Amino acid sequence: MREASFVKQNKEKWIVFEKALNNNVKINPDDLASYYIQLTNDLAYAQTYYPESKTLLYLNSLASQAHQKIYITKKESKNKIVSFWRDEFPLFFRQYHKTLLHTFLIFMAAVIIGAVSTLNDDSFVRLILGDGYVNMTIENIEKGEPMAVYKSGSNIGSFLGITINNIRVAIIAFAFGVFFSVGTIYVLFSNGIMLGAFITFFYNYGILEKTSTVWLHGTIEISVIVIAGCAGLVMGNSFLFPKTYSRRVAFMKGAKDGLKIVVSTIPFFIIAGFIEGFITRYGEQMPWFLAYGIIFLSLFVIVYYYIIYPILLNKAVNRSVPKLQLA
């Protein structure tokens, strides 16, 4: 790799690290150590391929500052849990927006496949959702209660069961990324095809509007499954595309980053479980403006936290620090 390409590929990462060392950005010791490991890998690469270069001198200086910083930094910071969701995660997640976009496109492709297949083959929905569920739903539709399934069970029991199941699906979507991202893509496709078949099933019966009840909790639930899939792709792609790192180091970093993304989804799964357990069952009796208000508010919260807020926060940080000069 040419030196200019090496600098261009890693410059943003070095800038973030330099900001932390200059106390312009708060960073916890664990992340500081992670940046240091990445920096030393870059330093070793530069020593091998760009000896006597200004890039090597710069990385040497940065590594020396980092070494001193790590050993004088206190171990814990105040309100660590709050700072994780408010500052640390949004700043960190900005780098994976492109991966999130790819994950979303994969999922939507599966939704379209599920929808088109169900439109053209009535038996397809039975293959995907199962005869038991389809027969039960048809019976409920004939009774005039197509969403009766969401009224069964106790509120608390439904809330706990749904939340645990959703978190399990998210962990599976992440963990399957270990199979070179193929496992995660399979999970995304399975859930996407299921969603497409489900929506089209109601469309075929002329009651598509009734699915708004499902979207009360489904907006967050489906969105966060896509984000968990993003975590799986982050881990799997780190092994497939290690960049300047060894595959072992790249995979360890990808696994850690992916796990951090999964952890960020837990509060949202709890919220989705709460809505499904306590609110969805009353969706058919709810005024339309209240139901759609919940749906659009849920969508806004997800889009703002995972897309808009990280962009705004990173821009605010970048404005506060002068640009790095490597030449």
From TrEMBL:
Keyword Acetylation: no
Transmembrane region(s): 100-119, 156-179, 186-208, 214-240, 261-283, 289-313
Pfam family, one: SpoIIM
Alphabetized UniProt keyword annotations: Membrane, Transmembrane, Transmembrane helix
Protein name: Uncharacterized membrane protein SpoIIM, required for sporulation
The organism of origin for this protein: Winogradskyella jejuensis
